[in-house]
User: Fold this.
Amino acid sequence: MSKLSRRSFLKASLTTASGLAITPKNILSAESEGLYQSSKTYDAKGLPTSVLGKTGVTVPRLAFGLGSRYCNVKDEDEAIGLLEKALDEGLYYWDTASDYSSSDGKVKSEERVGKAMKGKRNQVFLSTKVLPRDPSEALRSIELSLNRLQTDRIDVLNIHAVRSLEDNKEILKKGGLLDILYRMKEEKVTRFIGMSGHADPAAMTELIDKAELDCVIVAMNHYPRGLDNTTPRLDHVIPKAKEKNMGRLLMKVIRPLDTMEGLEINPEQLLRYALSHDDINAVTIGMDSMEVLKSNIKTLREFTPMNEGEKQVIAQALAPYFNSKDLPWLDSNYRDGNWV
Assistant:
């Protein structure tokens, strides 16, 4: 489908969103149409890689997270340079969202990504997210994302921040956000669809069961037990996603060090800890300087899995963080992407 026809499709859909009723069985494989970049042509430059579940795409085990940390790099040339360096080093999985921005709202993540991808779109495995649950607003958000990113196709389009069972009702209803995403996949606006979540593991596993999704991004060091306050998120969500052969990523890996002093732990240990988690394909981390980028690449290149004893040391070191009552991202009402 051409760029013009995709944009025309989105504009037409804005007036008919409430009538959409697309089901997974209607969706054609993007790969079978030969319309998308083959994973064989991405270049990880020797970095450790993993196959992202049912997508079949080989990705580096570290994705560049493009939320508030990245958006708060003030110098535009420096920010673009970080992405160019990441790509040069083999980090071609870029993860952004429609509402990722700087703390003052002046920098929009997707706009920066669009600039950095000029002439390089086929080298980047591009993930973004749509937050609105209302179908018409969701379509407008997707169209805005495409404009900012200066592209007519996404590799993974995610439902942003699955929150609760009540939230799922809006997502799953006929003609709702999930149907919009199915339609985007059918029309080749996106290769794959997925979800991200920081909260209720019951909501996340319900959506995994009821929807036909390709990927999931799960918060590791965030409010740890979700809205049901009983089940650890990773122990519950990751195995369920693996059952359905979904691609599985962790986020919020370094977050404790951003917010609490005195934790006897460093970023390299936290990254190794996340990468050592069973059944994880990749970790997405926000980066705001060349020093941080080079350090993370070095950790990934030299990665060896932690043994159980090492994992236990890290878990104990994180205990003060999870016992805190004052951190905003340990609150179930927290909204991700622009906290800095």
Remarks:
- Confidence is low (pLDDT under 50) at residues 21-35.
- Strands lie at 49-51, 58-60, 62-65, 93-95, 125-130, 154-162, 190-197, 215-219, 247-251, 282-286.
- The domain at 44-330 is CATH 3.20.20.100 (TIM Barrel).
